[in-house]
Amino acid sequence: MKIFLGSDHNGFHLKEKVFAYLVKRGYDVEDVGDEQLDPDDDFPQFAQAAALKVLGEEEGEARAILLCGGGQGMAMAANRFKGIRASVVWDAFEAKMTRNDNDSNVLALPSRMLENEAGTWQGIIETWLNTPFASAVRFKRRNAEIDEL
User: Fold this and answer.
1) How many CB atoms lie within 10 A of CB 147?
2) Can you say which residues are annotated as belonging to the binding site for D-ribulose 5-phosphate?
3) Rg of the Cα atoms in the chain
4) Which among 32, 68, 106, 125 is annotated as catalytic?
5) How many angstroms separate the Cα of 117 from the Cα of each of 69, 90, 112, 124?
6) Which residues bind D-ribulose 5-phosphate per the record (predicted)?
7) Mapped to the 3 state alphabet, what secondary structure does the chain carry?
8) What is the largest CA-CA distance in the chain?
9) Residue 112 scores a pLDDT above 80
10) Is 68 a catalytic residue?
11) What's the rounded Cα separation, in Å, for the pair 121 and 142?
12) What are phi and psi of 4, to 5 degrees?
């Protein structure tokens, strides 16, 4: 599974930690920016870069992890793209539910909450990456309805 990783200035330091964590565990990770800490950068460009990469992967197994101060901005920007299901997640339970029920393919993390909580963000990421989509008929129907909006 390919994982695209992006952040604005508020998530930059946590993104660096997440990148190292994922690479150490053998995941195929691509950083879509920002490449350096820039206090004046804007999150929508990184959400767009990650969303387009996820949608462009031929195997259909790509996912993205996006980080900004509260996670909400990244999720709102990423969700503008048909086929993206971005979820703001703050604990492992929500990570499990958004994968199981919603087939989330973009994880938006609130760096202000998680920056100093290594055990928490690691648990969120592991749960999100390893929870399969339940594929229940009602879940598939709902995802299709979202794409038709």
Assistant:
1) 11
2) 8-9, 69-73, 102, 112, 138, 142
3) 14
4) 68
5) 14, 11, 10, 11
6) 8-9, 69-73, 102, 112, 138, 142
7) CEEEEEECCCCHHHHHHHHHHHHHCCCEEEEEECCCCCCCCCHHHHHHHHHHHHHHCCCCCCEEEEEECCCHHHHHHHCCCCCCCEEECCCHHHHHHHHHHHCCCEEEEEHHHHCCCHHHHHHHHHHHHHCCCCCCHHHHHHHHHHHHC
8) 44
9) yes
10) yes
11) 28
12) -100, 135
The number of distinct structural domains making up the chain is: 1
Q: What is the mean pLDDT of the chain?
A: 96
Give residue 83's domain range. 2-148
Q: What is the mean pLDDT of residues 105-112?
A: 98
Instruction: List pLDDT tens digits, range 113-134.
Output: 999 999 999 999 999 999 999 9
Nearest CA-CA partner of 71 in 131, 114, 127, 36: 114
- Residue listed under structure tokens 């462009």: 56
Whether the Cβ atoms of residue 30 and residue 4 lie closer than 8 Å to each other: yes
Are the CB atoms for 147 and 82 separated by under 8 Å? Answer: yes
